[in-house]
């Protein structure tokens, strides 16, 4: 251990997304290759001597206790735990996090020493994994609110690869077997619909960790929500969601010294007639078992919505992935302009 193939794969995956900024300490990690990366893991991160590094992924993450702070992390999967190597700036982003992280003020802030903190979720504490719509993100749930993390991969391939690697690692865990299930008849097995809605698809792994996938009703609920935001202008049965993607809205900061831009996470939803941007809660839904009250905000909050017929042109950048798109709409205050002109000029 490790094999040449694994070291090559981990080296290839060790690349920070170009559009996201990270601290110097994480840039150092991203510069490590091959055996140096594995040695760094064993000497600085691994908690047990005989654990093996199996997968590496860079992703934005959200914590249940701090749902408004999205932070870049290097996610390391070993045969014992999932490690989230975090930017040190995350600690100072919110005063409410001091209890969560239990961190003393360090004396090395002004020195050349760069600190990263590592959040550890042991595989034995893992209870369920919720995969988001179209594999754009996934949520890992442990036994308490401190052990709920959402990885916003914004990439179905990265999500799929991580889930496959996680299942493979969980298969190595020695857990006590579940008791033998009681034989059920057909009607009790498939007729338990007390909730009135179809449950999500669940796959219970041999390690007893649940992998929960969204069903088609979630798309139906989303379509209904979108139709509500459109003030009933569209016939609901004919409303189709053509695209659901986690993206960033670019806000240019003109006042700064350099012409920089900030990225605001948004959920983009395209229907046959409209383009919507939503602020979505990726961490609170579905409610964890220990939650005593619903979240303070809805899962989807409308940030902006425009009609496709008002779309004037789409500008595409020439850079490689991630692609920047600029949608230019006709900026009309009154959407039904022609109708009002007719009333004003040719009738009372």
TrEMBL record:
InterPro entries: PH_domain-containing_M2, PH_NISCH_C, PH_PLEKHM2
Major subcellular site: cytoplasm
Source superkingdom: Eukaryota
Domain Nischarin C-terminal PH, chain residue ranges per copy: 241-347
Coiled-coil segments: none
GO biological process: Golgi organization; lysosome localization; regulation of protein localization
Keywords, ordered alphabetically: Cytoplasm
GO CC field: endosome membrane
GO MF annotations, alphabetized: kinesin binding
Keyword Magnesium: no
Keyword Translocase: no
Subcellular location: Cytoplasm
Residues annotated as domain PLEKHM2 PH: 114-178
Protein name: NISCH protein
